[in-house]
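ok posting inputs for the adenosine-5'-diphosphate job
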Amino acid sequence: TGMQSFLVVSVVIALAVATSLGLERQRALSTHRAKDALINTLSHELRTPLTSIVGSVELLTGDMDMAADERSDLQSRVSRNAERLLSMADNMLTLAAMDQREWTPDRRLTDLRECVLAAREAVAVPAERVSDLRVHFDVPDEPVPVVADCRAIERVVFNLLSNAIKYTPGPGSVHVRLTTSEFAARISVADDGMGIAREDQRHLFERFYRTSTAKQHVVPGTGLGLSIVRSIVAAHGGEIRVDSVVGVGSTFSVDLPLHPVTVSR
Ligand code: ADP
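and the output
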């Protein structure tokens, strides 16, 4: 059934991630502390969604007379957790490839609007939050020509947007905007969520860094998303910055050089 294949896929992903990290990143993680941090993160971040998937599937298959709404709750829990594992696996595999220097951006002349809008399809607001969390996309009417790896830029927006959603626990809104100035294109992702303390802001882009606020609120995460964002932006000759106030919200802005030739219409 769909449920069982979800389970199988999740387990395969978990194993692939564990293997890839075990083999490929061991060299880079030379200190015991880094290894401990990795093992802690992994065991928690893999176990939590997997435990939830296994539990939900057991309930679903064990009780054939379950009410339809209860059944659909459990199904959406399974898919949410499988998505979380998938996104984590993608981040970890990207990072492993970057470490191996196997990854360089595949840059082509593209309309940046397409890369930004692709993330809209990829990030889903969890069903139980649809009523109180609005996500707005705002892109120019004209093409925005950049020389970029569109899939990598999509991942940048994906990671920033997933964070904006995750770290806006109550009702709120998230704005993804694409704007241009004379030489640069700017992608900004703004939320009115929990915000980030000033002392945390300069560490955000480090691998495995998570703020204590994030941990206190038990928001799931690995501390890898922003380190990947930073690497991708740097590989494009771009810049990233964060403006944030605790309790008010955060805005992450990515500047990418514009291609000088206007894309012909
Ligand atoms: P993760 O979300 O998996 O923990 P990231 O590297 O994406 O890892 O983010 C690092 C940390 O930065 C997060 O743990 C969180 O504390 C903080 N953070 C990132 N984005 C936001 C945001 N939009 N609002 C508040 N805190 C954020």
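notes: The chain has a mean pLDDT of 86. The two ends are 47 Å apart (CA to CA).
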